[in-house]
Amino acid sequence: MILGGMGPVDLLHSNAAKLFAAGYALFSGIVFIGVAGLILAPLFHRVLHRFHLELEEFDDPRRDD
Question: Residue 1: pLDDT band by 50, 70, 90 thresholds?
Fold first, then answer.
């Protein structure tokens, strides 16, 4: 919940507040992982190309075997 910007939370007394806090924590965690993946995907792709690691090297149409 701190990751989502909610900060330290006092005791939640109603069920609606508890459900909101749980949903908000899950949502912000999933959004954080998704955005981190989108930001790191091009970097990871560049590393694969840098080390010439082909994911499917036998299906490359540019190869003439």
Answer: low
Region of 10 on the Ramachandran plot (φ > 0 left; ψ -120 to 50 alpha; else beta): beta
Q: What's the predicted TM-score (pTM) here?
A: 0.61
Structural tokens at position 4: 């989502």
Name the residue among 58, 60, 62, 42 with its Cα closest to residue 50. Answer: 42
* Ramachandran sector of residue 5 (left: φ over 0; alpha: ψ -120 to 50; beta: rest): left
User: Which residue, 65, 58, 3, 7, is CA-closest to 35?
Assistant: 3
Residue 29 near residue 22, CB atoms below 8 Å: no
